[in-house]
Amino acid sequence: MMVRIAHISDTHLGTRPRNGVRYNVWGEEMRSQLLENDFYERFQELFDKISEIDPPVDLVVHSGDLYNSPWEGNPSQPPVVAQETAIAVLQNFIEKTGIPVFILEGNHGLYRLLEVSLLDTLKLAVPGLNVATQQDLKRAVRKGNPLVYSYEKLDVYCFPFMDSIVLKAASMTVGFDDWITTHQSRVRSRPSIAVAHGMDLDDTLFKSMFTMDYDYIALGHDHHQHMQSKGAWYAGSPERWRFDEIRHEKGFLVVDIEAGSAPVVTPHTLEYNRLIINEKMKIAVDDTVESISDRVYALFDENGLKTPWNPQIAARIRLVFEGKAARVTSFDLGMALESLRIKILSKDSEYNVAQFVWHVRQSVDEEFTATSYPEIESEYLIQDPEEDFRAYLDTLEIDKSLDTSILTKIAVRSLEHAVGKKQGRLSAESIREDEK
Fold first, then answer.
1. Which of 94, 176, 188, 430 is a good FRET partner for 380, with 20 to 30 A between their CA atoms?
2. Which domains, ranges and CATH numbers included, belong to the chain?
3. pLDDT in tens, 183-233
């Protein structure tokens, strides 16, 4: 028996890039921001393309992170438009094609401290949709039951996101592996797949799952579409969620599965109108603020960005500045780039740019490496905030009764809290605790 599935993942509906974004531009007037709307359009495009596949698929599998929030850095629900988009697109697709859809819960869209799931609410609104949540996983492990959905031609074994740190803290690592090998074992000779959200990098991809003789393993969490091992693939994210993702092919997978045989995986790639630039720019010793700014403008010109405003193709730009100039501090460079950004993103700008952010690396010996997790990456950080803030205070007339070292500590801790580097409450006690 042959079965065909479409494997999608990491759609991150509700993503709202905020840093360095052109002010007051809409994807849909008064409903969704311009770059947020890209994720909604891509979600619709995915299901439009899947509906046209011939022969048609028997099931659509989403391997996690349907929504972008909540997660540990943002406890709020996804925007209303994100939830409306999920409902409307899924309802229309299932009604039009009769093809069922399965969605797994990932680490995004997951409430950390509540025993509820947005996917359960979505399921109530969309007939023909099945979901597997972390709460489903906890119940299955606690009761010693399998977590599996059976379709007409296929059994789907479910592995929602589970943080290995939580398992270790609860002394459940061995018990969880035992549950996998005991209760998640295929029981029929017909095609069987696993759906999981995890990565080796953060120890959330459980090795015992790969010993269970599934015919295909549909993986989510890594945004790079690729084969993880024989018969196990990441579908990747369909939209460029982080700047360094422009080097990856984006899209979805169509997988033909037959019990006991290697799956046949066919990648389907998407095309994009919006240009994304993610480049390094070297700072020479004799550079000035003016010469660096000139090179930034030259880069814009080389990429054809000096055109009238067109929101459909307006570019997203991230520059990484590496090196030190004798006459330029990181504070000077930051102020100059901030001024440049105001001009670039202004209403009467000559440049078709929707977002402009940067990062400064002061050491030429230090190679820039993007963080592994987009959710913990800040797209603009001052390289040495203490040094830069002290330099800034030196330009001001400060009341002698004020302790500039305390002012600096407060400013730096505030920045760390703002970008998620520090958690908890910002207080005098927490600052003193950091000094210990």
1. 430
2. 2-269 (3.60.21.10), 276-383 (no CATH), 393-436 (no CATH)
3. 999 988 899 999 999 999 999 999 999 999 999 999 999 999 999 999 999
